[in-house]
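[audit] Reproducing an earlier prediction to check determinism. Same input, same settings, fresh worker. If the tokens differ from the archived copy the diff job will pick it up downstream; this log only records the rerun itself.
[audit] input (204 residues):
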Amino acid sequence: MRTRATISLLATGLVFGSVTGCSASSDNPKPAVTVTKTAPVDSKANGKHDADSAGQDKASSTSSSMRSVQKFSFEGDDEYDPMAGNATVLSYQQPVHASVTAAEEVNEPGYVWAALEVKVCGTKGEFTTSSDPWTLAYKDGTRIEPSGTTYDDFPKPEYVTDAPISAGDCSRGKIVYAVPGKQRPAQALYTTNEEPTLRWSLAK
């Protein structure tokens, strides 16, 4: 029987299995994610890569500029229907204010809140969104996951977890991170259990 797949999305790419959410069972085969195209949203999207991230590794040199769109797709199988969509990083802001500081939240002096604004749209099939696949990557190899805590005065609109997306639908919002105040991440990553990782440069 065909069922609707639950896919952990967010800036682009599908997350299948534990990242795709298609099934909690490890017995089921994982669908593969294919990035079919990267296209700029506007003239500003044509991509100079972040000079800070250049030379980190081969994969990082292929990061797209903010506001560029990356497409993803899943061909489907006997259990899950085909699906496809696209995602982009719209903005990055550091610091952002909240009544409880990031330093207090993570018990680490010098940390501040930062917000990554993303948008995911469906073009085929159905899936649900998640902020879990979105991480911030630094030049030294450090990666930071989204905050596990949400406060009422976090930047709005917040990115919605488990938002249902079908063809023609989009989900847009801000994901908040606790980050070192004196450093800026080089890239925003959308990482799944499948290759490739989708990357955007966060150069100013």
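[audit] rerun output stored. Observation attached for the diff report: Helices lie at 17-20, 102-106.
[audit] end
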